[in-house]
Design a protein that fits this description.
By secondary structure, the chain is mainly alpha-helical. Helices cover 56% and strands 0% of the residues. The protein contains eight helices and no strands. The longest helix is centred in the first third of the chain and has 24 residues.
């Protein structure tokens, strides 16, 4: 949309409709920023690369839904947990390569443990994870999956290798005198 159209006094119906659409989109996007507390820089970085939030593209007329707001608040919880700024966290998502060392540094995780977890994350023929992005570690949902694993590991007092070993117990066959 050409914002200069807002300054033209006598507009035809098409221009007026375009102007209303532009103002509605602008209002909606500003409301999204205000509700979530995003800085203008964060909003711009998210608009340039919305993929980590499960959005393919933010084009003119894009409308944020409830899931988008939830992903934004999850993002904010994640960078707060990591103890970094939102802009620093978004830098991880805006790199062209998957750089798990950068994520390990941001999160305070051991890089070797993170690489082990990422390598062995998929397990079995069917996934028990319901979110389609939960195994894509370049998304907010994928990083949340990693956070959950590290939290379980910490709660149990074991490292990721031991947690993955415990997971193999589900492959064992139950035997005994059941008859």
């Amino acid at each position: 949309y050409n914002a200069r159209q807002l300054l033209i006094a006598n507009q035809n119906d098409v221009d007026r409709d375009d102007m209303r659409t532009f103002i509605r989109a602008l209002t909606r996007n500003l409301s999204w920023m205000q509700w979530t507390g995003l800085s203008p820089k964060e909003a711009l970085l998210i608009a340039r690369n919305p993929y980590p939030f499960g959005v393919n593209a933010m084009r003119y007329g894009f409308e944020f839904g409830f899931a988008d707001i939830m992903d934004t608040t999850t993002y904010m919880q994640q960078y707060t947990t990591f103890g970094c700024s939102g802009v620093e966290y978004l830098a991880y998502f805006n790199t062209s390569d998957t750089n798990y060392e950068a994520l390990a540094h941001l999160a305070g995780w051991d890089p070797d443990q993170l690489n082990t977890l990422v390598t062995h994350f998929s397990y079995g023929d069917s996934s028990v994870v319901f979110d389609k992005n939960a195994t894509d570690f370049t998304t907010i949902a994928g990083v949340q999956s990693l956070i959950n694993c590290f939290e379980i590991s910490q709660t149990m007092g074991v490292n990721i290798n031991e947690l993955l070993t415990l997971r193999q117990l589900s492959d064992l066959e139950v035997t005994g005198d059941d008859e």
